[in-house]
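In this section we walk through a basic example: taking a raw amino acid sequence and producing a predicted 3D structure, encoded as discrete structure tokens. The instruction is simple. Fold the sequence below.
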Amino acid sequence: MKTFFGTDGIRDVVNEKLTSELAMKLGNAVANLFGGKYKKLYLARDTRNSGKMLELAIASGALAAGMDVESCGILTTPALAYITRTERAVGIVISASHNPSIYNGLKVLCEGYKISNEMEEKLEDIMLAGLLKYCNYKDIGTYVEDSSKREYIDYVISCYSSRVSSINYKIAVDVANGAAGAIIDEIFGKLGLNYDVYFNTPNGLNINENCGSTSWEPLSKIIKKGGYDLGVLFDGDADRCLFLDSQGNLVDGDALIGINSLKLKKQGRLKNNFVVATVMSNLGLEDFLKANGLILLRSDVGDKYVLELMLQENGVIGGEQSGHIIFLDRSTTGDGIITALETLEALAFFSKRIEDLVSELPKYPQDLKNITVKDKMKIMKDKRLEELKKKYEHINNFRVLVRPSGTEHIIRVMSEGEDKNMVNECIKEFSQLIQNLDKEY
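The resulting token sequence is shown next.
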């Protein structure tokens, strides 16, 4: 069992479990493990006030071990993934994605991909040994603050300059006071889109705060008041994207996967007729894909598992309800900006508004409850949870999933079925049980 790494790198409360000392150890361990193959470590961060502190700590650890470091400054996770792929390098993103500013995270990327569990374990072994590697003073690495983000910006523009030119919708964009705000104008502006940017005044503490893909209601009000045709929402590091229609209604990741899967099929971009989503994706998406000659493959929850199944089956598109969607012929990871542009291209391709496209997807009643607990793993092992699950197993077209969050002290309960009242009752029953168990533990 890993000590530091969770489902998405190292992520925890800053200056409690996630400290500058830990960050320095990671930087040193990366140089120790990868220094023989890669000369330079690329760093990027989102807008959290802890980002610079952790970046300098990582850099110190890597430099002391003889590895060069290049800071890309404030930049999205998918942008750094692209840089490490094109430069054939290793990188670390300092971001806690959609989490509030009390959290931060450290994600290690290697040639465009998040590193494997095996590599994370090797890094942990080095970090836990407590023996920092120091090189001769003549071999200390060099540190530069030269940003390579232009490579990514130019790449995205080259992919979509001829594909979204006919888009004339009035668009509201919420960058969540996060990393997308640093590059959105250079991309959307260059592509000639008619857009306004909101929630782009980061102060180090307001990332994802009442804005972004996890809090879409504020942009919904702006859309209705401002007469926008649609809205685009990113999270803190812009690896997620969700849409809003002209009435401010949410268009989730399932709908975006469905719309874009059909477009990719008609464009001939699908290598085969399947799409990857997670066990959390709505049964309606599965029905829609089946009606259009496509097959849905389900992975465990988490973008790393989506990507793993896509690579295994040679897939092109996969993702999650949260808006973390991978277009593997465009990017090696979920990229909110690419998802936004792919979806805008779909509107042009089908010559339809987003609400018209979404109306073609059936959707089963579904509810998701996040329950904060002290010890999620103890509760997950309690037999009373399994006993309650059995109550719902015999019901046709009904699902209930209970899983611990990989990044927060939360247990998530998802219920889905044809009967909305039963869905709500199921959520209520599980919530009460988990809350009672939490009091016991």
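Looking at the output, two observations stand out. The chain has four domains: 5-147, 152-250, 252-333, 366-440. The chain has a mean pLDDT of 94. In the next section we compare this with other chains.
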